């Protein structure tokens, strides 16, 4: 998320991530809450915290301005954990395996789940096969090919952006993860399974060569395909 926010607003911010576990007891919103006060590096995290995102039915996707539909694997159930760029104290941090995601859910094989977001939200998400251990670095940061998103950034004429990111995974010397593809408004960012191929993905901290997909203001419905093999 550092790279997306830098492109959109020209500010210094930490990489995406309120941290999270996949505990069944993790909190999640059932409707959009109030907007939090805008903080450039954090965006809208919802009041109460995490209420800027919640699960909706696929039929309701057209009713919301900003959405992500997660398309499941053909063969395996996948778990999804989503976070805001900042925690409840408005401090940027990377997702850690011991904490709680604001929103988490399972996408059964052959199905899809959709999430609505309030404007000003930015954060990320990670996917894992159900029943598998959650990979993490020596520092406890959750590893994998992250999806990252910015919906209607307040300081950039409400521009939006998205990417698939392997920065933390590669920094930890690992690339053996399930692929992820995100599509939106004829733009695409993906990393295929085990990083066999990629497009518009974030692989390093070099803003000149790692930029994801930046879009003008307006509604944005993203489609994220898990277990993407290229």
Automatic annotation (TrEMBL):
Organism: Talaromyces islandicus
Protein name as catalogued: Allergen Asp f 4
Pfam family, one: Allergen_Asp_f_4
Cellular compartments per GO CC: extracellular region
Keyword field contains Signal: yes
UniProt-recorded Gene Ontology molecular function terms: IgE binding
Residues in the signal sequence: 1-16
Superkingdom of the organism of origin: Eukaryota
Presence of keyword GTP-binding: no
Listed PANTHER family: PUTATIVE (AFU_ORTHOLOGUE AFUA_3G02940)-RELATED (PTHR42039)
Coiled-coil parts of chain: none
Sorted UniProt keywords: Signal
């Amino acid at each position: 998320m550092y790279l997306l926010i830098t492109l959109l607003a020209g500010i210094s911010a930490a990489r995406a991530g309120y941290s999270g576990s996949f505990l069944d007891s993790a909190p999640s919103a059932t409707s959009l809450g109030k907007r939090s006060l805008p903080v450039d590096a954090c965006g809208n995290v919802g009041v109460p915290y995490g209420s800027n995102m919640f699960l909706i039915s696929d039929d309701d996707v057209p009713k919301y301005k900003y959405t992500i539909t997660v398309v499941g694997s053909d063969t395996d159930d996948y778990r999804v954990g989503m976070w805001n760029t900042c925690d409840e104290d408005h401090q940027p941090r990377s997702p850690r395996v011991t904490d709680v995601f604001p929103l988490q859910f399972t996408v059964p094989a052959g199905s899809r789940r959709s999430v609505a977001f309030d404007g000003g939200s930015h954060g990320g998400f990670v996917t894992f096969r159900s029943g598998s251990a959650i990979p993490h670095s020596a520092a406890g940061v959750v590893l994998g090919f992250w999806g990252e998103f910015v919906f209607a950034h307040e300081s950039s004429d409400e521009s939006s952006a998205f990417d698939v990111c392997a920065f933390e995974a590669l920094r930890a010397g690992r690339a053996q993860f399930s692929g992820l593809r995100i599509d939106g408004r004829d733009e695409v960012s993906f990393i295929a399974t085990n990083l066999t191929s990629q497009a518009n993905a974030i692989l390093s901290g070099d803003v000149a060569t790692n930029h994801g997909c930046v879009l003008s203001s307006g509604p944005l419905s993203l489609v994220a395909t898990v277990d993407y093999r290229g």
